[in-house]
Design goal:
The complex is a heterodimer. By secondary structure, chain A is an alpha/beta fold. Chain A is built from nine helices and ten strands. Chain A has two domains: 64 residues, no CATH class; 190 residues, Vaccinia Virus protein VP39 (Rossmann fold). In chain A, the strands form two sheets. In chain A, strands 6-2-1-7-8-10-9 form a seven-stranded mixed beta sheet. In chain A, strands 3-5-4 form a three-stranded antiparallel beta sheet. Chain A is globular and about 55 Å long. The model of chain A has no long low-confidence stretch (mean pLDDT 95). By secondary structure, chain B is an alpha/beta fold. Chain B has a single domain, classed as 3-Layer(aba) Sandwich (Rossmann fold). Chain B has a seven-stranded parallel beta sheet with strand order 3-4-2-1-7-8-9, sandwiched between helices. The longest helix of chain B has 12 residues. The model of chain B has no long low-confidence stretch (mean pLDDT 93). Classes of the chains: A alpha/beta, B alpha/beta. The interface between A and B is medium-sized, with 28 and 26 residues. Chain A: GO terms for molecular function: S-adenosylmethionine-dependent methyltransferase activity.
Chain lengths: 276, 192
């Protein structure tokens, strides 16, 4: 069933202002079409029948804000999502990163961590894991807790295993986890080089320099102005000749920075050109 | 006063389809004029990992440019747009389209309902929604939404549909403007 239209356009604007004034989370440059759907969806699942009820709860219950942030942002992700992308990382990008003494990778908007774990597996199989650090960040603290636990639903493993094989994986995917009733726990060693921390792409600045930044299906929720700002943040955080990887249908083409980057064949991966 | 509903200028035609709809799309695309006055947007159910093969296939037959949508693509008339596999498609305004990878709707991503609804809110009476063959109920609720926003609704004649569940359901549930046979679709679009 489609989400109802409980919240009017101008009410969405009030809500965005309230959340910013009260809590500092800034959604004003989020893509409106998607944000409106999320607000109406949360009204449906939390049974708010009017804007006034939702607004009252947000303004008076800081605990509820946590849930609001969690539901308003999209946390749909999977391991080795778009296997051909991971195949390109494995075959074309990692060999180039292998020449660095220390490889720093930023998974921006990592949600519950599936892509960060996938990258850890790729690095292990390329024998680069020992000299790598993976930074996984998200604005939402509760998804990072899931990422930290390394526990994922068992029912997903069939899909992940298929994705893994399509990405060029040669091992038995189940070697990487221990199953337990309806969930699996991924090998502790996959967390050794994983640093998880909150970071808001809207308001926080660059915190390190990287050779690879992976940010997939996050920018689609931002409007063009915010996308451009985040591209600049990535540009400031990326070493010369570093790589920026986006989602399957995201592009640097509409950005001013495009001219400083070179797209790596038909994948959504761009290499930063050497310019001093 | 004469109602201008039938005459209001169409700007966008969104075609939703599932199982059995590709044949109809292929027949339509071959018979389009080399200039049309609307944008055509296809929302078709397909496998999550499908590549650009649909774009290449349609482009071979089409007199018009066929574009698989990237996030924030600007829509233009006289072009055919394909919603990429594994994303919902939403309209920010009459120009800019956004992709969304949130939860599936009606077991589908892209969901026809999601795009019908978003397009109806933005385009109102200048929208035509078309629902083709399929085995799923996705699209029916969206057609109702298009009607509510004064847009036009065309449904494939269930008798001509390879899988008639979707169009039959729509014919029963929605006040439609036209029932169309596959070979008529291009001609109707050419006339707009």
């Amino acid at each position: 069933m489609l989400e109802p239209s409980i919240i009017k356009d101008e009410e969405v604007e009030y809500l965005i202002k309230d959340v910013y004034d009260m809590y500092g989370y800034d959604f004003s440059e989020y893509s409106r079409a998607s944000f409106k759907r999320r607000v109406n969806r949360i009204c449906l699942i939390d049974r708010f029948t009017s804007f006034a009820e939702l607004r009252y709860t947000i303004l008076n219950d800081p605990e509820y804000l946590k849930r609001f942030i969690e539901e308003i942002t999209v946390n749909v992700t999977e391991m080795f999502r778009d296997p051909l992308f991971f195949k390109a990382l494995r075959e074309k990008i990692l060999p180039q990163l292998g020449t660095y003494p220390l490889i720093r990778i930023w998974v921006a908007g990592c949600s519950t961590g599936e892509e960060a774990y996938s990258i850890a597996i790729l690095l292990k199989e390329a024998n680069l894991y020992h000299k790598s650090l993976i930074y996984g960040t998200d604005l939402n603290p509760s998804v990072l807790e899931t990422a930290r636990s390394g526990v994922f639903p068992l029912q997903q493993m069939k899909l992940y295993s298929e994705n893994y094989i399509l990405s060029g994986g040669k091992k038995d995917f189940s070697d990487y986890y221990t199953a337990n009733y309806d969930s699996v726990r991924f090998d502790k060693s996959l967390q050794e080089k994983l640093i998880l921390s909150t970071h808001n792409l809207v308001s926080d600045s660059s915190f390190n320099s990287f050779q690879l930044i992976v940010c997939r299906n996050v920018l689609i929720y931002f409007d063009r102005g915010l996308q451009e700002r985040v591209f600049r943040l990535f540009d400031n955080s990326l070493e010369n000749l570093g790589f920026l990887a986006l989602g399957a249908k995201e592009t640097l083409r509409f950005s001013k920075l495009d001219e400083n980057y070179h797209q790596v064949d038909d994948q959504r991966i761009w290499k930063k050109l050497d310019h001093n | 006063m004469i109602s201008n509903k039938e005459n209001s200028k169409a700007e966008l035609i969104v075609i939703g389809g599932s199982a059995g709809s590709l044949k109809v799309i292929l027949e339509m695309i071959k018979n389009l004029d080399d200039h049309i006055n609307v944008s055509v947007l296809l929302v078709l159910h397909r496998k999550a990992h499908s590549t650009n093969i649909l774009q290449a296939l349609l482009q071979q037959l089409s007199p018009l440019e066929v574009v698989e949508i990237d996030d924030k693509t600007e829509i233009q008339s006289n072009k055919i747009y394909i919603t990429p596999a594994d994303y919902h498609l939403l309209f920010e305004n009459k120009k800019v389209m956004s992709l969304d990878s949130s939860e599936k709707m009606n077991y589908s991503r892209p969901s026809i309902d999601v795009t019908f609804k978003s397009a109806a809110e933005i385009y109102g009476e200048s929208l035509i929604g078309v629902l083709l063959s399929g085995a799923n109920a996705d699209g029916v609720e969206g057609l109702e939404y298009i009607k509510k926003n004064n847009g036009r609704v065309w449904i494939q004649d269930p008798e001509t549909a390879e899988v008639d569940y979707m169009p039959r359901h729509a014919v029963e549930a929605v006040k439609y403007d036209k029932i169309i046979k596959p070979h008529e679709l291009a001609a109707y679009i050419n006339q707009l």
